[in-house]
Amino acid sequence: MRRKICFFTGSRAEFGIMHELMHRVDDDENCQLQMIATNMHLSPEFGLTYKEIEADGLAIDKKVEMLLSSDTSNGIVKSMGLGMIGFADALEDLQPDLAVILGDRYEMLAAAAACLIYKVPIAHLGGGDITEGAYDDAIRHSISKMSSLHFTSTEKNRHRLIQMGEQPERVFWVGGLGLEEIINTPTLTLGELEQSIDFNLGTKFLVITFHPVTMEDHTAEGQCRDLLKALEEVNSAYKLLFTLPNSDTDGRIIISLINEFVSKNKERRYSIQSLGKKRYFSALKYASAVVGNSSSGLVEAPSFHIPTLNIGNRQQGREHGDSVFDVAANCEEVKVGLNVILSDDFRKKAQNTVNPYEKAGTLDAIFKTISTCPLENLSKKRFHNI
Q: What pLDDT is attached to residue 13?
């Protein structure tokens, strides 16, 4: 009997990281790929990115609508409740042998809880990370405690999961899955990228992604305004390419501010909801630097050997290499940080940086385990004392 491996995906970034693993499962005669698409994938506001999944040649088995048109705490908690209901129906129909969940978003917490009750063992990608400024941190650890197999991006993260009581023989340091995509994904030329977004980036531009810091109350607007004020003073030779934030608490506040900022100077500024993996990697290939508080600036950008300005507390505690420069989320510090990362000395440092998330054979290691590990009693766990 073919092993039914079910992937949950709720965002463009998550699908971009997992899609080669999905294809590997789909191509294996001993496995049956199942996929549940949810949250932002199904939202017109966030680009209906489920179409990118279908365009990639993968079938979506179940679409679970859950995202309310609200980025308040109340709206997000209610969205999680809707997700739980939908995931219950999807699991009832699909009856997977193993679930694959990446990361730390709130919709994945609902998915993991549903799998736990259905006794579907979970293979968790990206556990053990630390991001103290976001509630993603607690969500990530919670998913880890509901999971049976763990694939970590660094050795420190592996040890952290063992410290949390996970059995060492079930925790695998494999490296960052998305980084192999950088090698395997053909990029666009700069001209093709510009044509695809209908905007002239030129030879100097910044890629900017700024999310709410969800463990702080009512800071999104002030921090975003400070960032935009600092960006106003960046050398006019640099164009600004914004990728808009996810459906987190207060995310729509940031989207509104960025779009207003862009509208005041459309020759130099551009915003887009989703670049998709190919265009995003292409943008990083040609960008002068990455600015914001996205995990991509710490995990993926260093592999392109470009500087990252990491702003505020969202990624606090996450490992990163020497190409990342940390500043507080206020205008003056951001301005100082921009001057640092755009300096010749720092750019040279970035060109020689070592990315702590890179490890050879990541995809093969994950696939071999999820496709061949014994399933009997996999859901049963014992606490590992150290």
A: 84
